[in-house]
Amino acid sequence: MNYDRILIRYGELSTKGKNRKVFIHKLKRNIKRVLRNFEKINIEADRERMFILLNGENGLEIIELLKNVFGIQSFSPAIKTDKELENMKNAALDLFKKIHQAGETFKITTKRSDKTYYLDTNEINQIFGAHLLKNIPELKVDVKKPDINLQIEIREKAVYFSCENIPGAGGLPVGSSGKGMLMLSGGIDSPVAGFLSMKRGVEIEAVHFYSPPFTSERSKQKVIDLTEKLANISGAVKLHIVPFTEIQQLIAKQVPENYSMTTTRRLMLRITDEIRRKNDGLAIITGESLGQVASQTLESMYAINDVTNTPILRPLITMDKSEIIDISRAIDTFEISNRPYEDCCTVFVPASPKTKPKKEKVQYFESYIEFEPLISKAVENTETIAIAPKAAEQDGFGDLF
């Protein structure tokens, strides 16, 4: 790699106003975390761009890691020069000679952020195009589909040359939109919901309901492994494992079978909301997709939501299963989710759950049961694990959307 830095473009962050500094600070922090093993790098940021000075570090490894950082629209390996024309021409030619292969075509694309520079965009394109044609035999111009697009960015204090735009993951930096509690079941959907929430800047903590001996240690490990995959994207993630056996047994005993799933989901939501309150969260995130199962009809959601005023984020609400599976494969959670270890919802699922439950009926059934002490007990006995990122390298998902 023949570059000395990586130029990062903010994309959506550029639309922010007075609070843009907050978003940029979050992005810089997240990049530092992802690149924590590269001790020599320096990161510089201003309102328009961020630069990673490589200082001899492996730029190719850094590029692979940057592809997965939310808040980056695109980035380019680059070199920097001053604004003296001859120095610029020498730098451009030196870079081009190192990357150009015989028979490849090229074009010049100039962005003149510094409008006071004495040459305009067309003049710069002509000067540098002529310079390269003069010094590299058999080089040809192709302005429509060039093999190499030499990009020249003239800014106030320096000039940057690059030949590649690499798509980033887009979205907003994780942590810039507050914290949400992800109801993580162990299935295919909820990890994808967590991923998409992080893409919009939400810091997540996961909540899992565990019902031993009906659910095994392997089902618990499955959820830990899923949380680790999310941690590889966002940084350390807290996993709250809620003991749920006693509550589920009571529901099965006291609530009519066709309403037991509705009550189960209502109790899960109440417990998650209490954990959210204790951990300063602002929302609850679920993997619900409209109409996918009995608890995900509009009537069910209406009856279940009755227990909280907390915002509930449903990133998958309009997606079909194939779309969700595609994303789960891209973020490497699909195979883990497919492990044949049942969670508490699948173990206790009724034969004929109500698809259009009435809020008044479920309230009536629950009025005969004193759930509050059991909710407090479950919250008090919740096990919290801090899951750290495991892999230094992740598969790229910047081209998912």
TrEMBL record:
Residue runs in coiled coils: none
State the Gene3D superfamilies in the record.
3.30.2130.30, HUPs
Boundaries of every THUMP domain copy: 60-165
SUPFAM superfamilies according to UniProt: Adenine nucleotide alpha hydrolases-like (SSF52402), THUMP domain-like (SSF143437)
Its domain of life reads Bacteria
Keyword check for Secreted: no
Enzyme Commission (EC) number? 2.8.1.4
| UniProt-listed CDD domains | PPase_ThiI, THUMP_ThiI
Q: Which GO terms describe its molecular function?
A: ATP binding; CCA tRNA nucleotidyltransferase activity; tRNA binding; tRNA-uracil-4 sulfurtransferase activity
Return the similarity comment.
Belongs to the ThiI family.
From the Swiss-Prot or TrEMBL record, give the protein name: Probable tRNA sulfurtransferase
> What organism is listed for this UniProt entry?
Cytobacillus solani
Q: What is the lineage of its organism?
A: Bacteria, Bacillati, Bacillota, Bacilli, Bacillales
Q: Which gene encodes it?
A: thiI
